[in-house]
Amino acid sequence: MFALSEEHRQIQDLAREFAREHVAPGAAARDKSGAFPADVVQQLGELGFLGMFVPQDLGGAGLDVLSYVLALEEVCYADASVGVIMSVQNSLAGWPILAFGTDEQKAKWLTPLATGERIGCYALTEPMAGSDAGAQQTRATPVDGGYRLDGAKMWITNGPQAGICVTYANLDVASRHKGVCAFIVDTTTPGFRVGKIEEKLGLHASGTCELVYENLFVPKEQLLHAERQGFQVAMATLDGGRIGIAAQSLGIAQRCLDLAVAYAKERKAFGKAIAEQQAIQWKIADMRCRIEAARLLTWRAAWLKGQGDRASAECSMAKLMASETANFCAYEALQIFGGYGFSKEYEVERLYRDARITTLYEGTSEIQRLVIARSTIG
Fold first, then answer.
1. CA separation for the pair 317, 58 (Å, rounded)
2. Is the pTM of the predicted complex or chain greater than 0.85?
3. Cα–Cα 20 to 30 A to 52, which of 46, 239, 301, 359?
4. How far is it, in rounded angstroms, from Cα 110 to Cα 48?
């Protein structure tokens, strides 16, 4: 029988206790106000949940990918907005520096990310470079001592609050992905500014925005990995990011199931609890089956990633299955709630909105299917 280790159980329990006591109570209010959860993020940093892969001597927790997945699901069960902040901090901002950075870069940039002193973001997407990530138009021009960046990014999670930004720019736009470089950008640098703040369907407490680079100088010491190797950094990072979104999706899906079960036991129709109706029972059964399957796919992808395996197909399978499951469970939970589910008075309405993004960011479901198919066909 598959079972988590005692250490993994302890991490899961710690995250669950924190999330339900400190994250969940303010979720509805943050959804209405759109306020960034700075106090909760600070607490996540104190617990080590913002630098779960970062070595302890650099201020992190020094844990494995499965530990991260377990903790992230619990945080997202309470509030997916808080969870995606945690996900980006770990997998999109911190991980590429840990995996591809020099010792000097790790020492300088990872500690403030791991402790939560500075928020991190990942700037890849552009107006004309979403699923086609190789079509980067942001330019990197070599200058004395470094590079000049010019261009704009969009849909950047954590962008409004970020102090550290892993940015991708192209030395030669005509070369597409072969000219892409990755940079560590300090957002206090002249020439960097936050553009339009997006108003979104869900995840209201998570900031998403446009980032603008205008004659921004980046020292050569902040080139991540090597010239023209940025696309490699981006794609490897997205594998881990997809595991994070799978965990987020699981948190949303599990919350939907738990709320649906509790409501079905209380709600009466035709003289008995609707939980006794076969139509409702089948919905609940389907929700549980899909969640369990998606969770095992996610745990397997996390384990493989932790072993040093690229595991691109497995990461895509986990992300595809979990995100589709989150949307399925949100739909069915709202259906079980009936008209009440359509009201903002009930949490399931927020879950329905928050779930929708999971099949879009970190690669759409269509892109995941392409990755999986190409890995299968060869």
1. 32
2. yes
3. 359
4. 13
Domain range 6-118, CATH architecture: Orthogonal Bundle (1.10)
Tokens of 248: 């987020």
Residue whose token pair is 């997998």: 91
Q: Are 361 and 285 in contact (CB under 8 A)?
A: no
Spatial CB neighbours of 5, under 8 Å, sequence gap ≥ 6: none
Task: Please answer whether residues 123 and 87 qualify as being in contact, where contact means their C-beta atoms are separated by less than 8 angstroms.
Answer: no
Dihedral through CA 38, CA 44, CA 50, CA 54, nearest 10? 140
> What region does 358 belong to: left with phi over 0, alpha with psi -120 to 50, or beta?
alpha
Its CATH architecture, for the domain 121-231, is Beta Barrel (2.40)
Lowest mean pLDDT across 94-103, 126-135, 181-190, 221-230: 126-135
pLDDT in tens, 142-188: 999 999 999 999 999 999 999 999 999 999 999 999 999 999 999 99
Strand, coil or helix: 310: coil
**What b/e string do you get for 284-300 counting C-beta neighbours within 10 Å, with b at 16 or more?**
beebeebbeebbebbbb
Q: Where are the domains of the chain?
A: 6-118, 121-231, 232-377
- Concatenating the DSSP letter of every residue in 226-244 gives -TT-HHHHHHHHHHHHHHH
Which CATH fold would you assign to the domain 232-377? Answer: Butyryl-CoA Dehydrogenase, subunit A; domain 3 (1.20.140)
φ, ψ for residue 49, nearest 5 deg: -85, -5
The span from the CA of 355 to the CA of 350, in Å, is: 8
Alpha helix (H) residue ranges in the chain: 6-18, 27-33, 38-47, 65-78, 80-87, 95-100, 103-115, 230-266, 278-306, 312-337, 347-356, 365-377
* Residue 362 bears catalytic tag: yes
Amino acid at 226: A
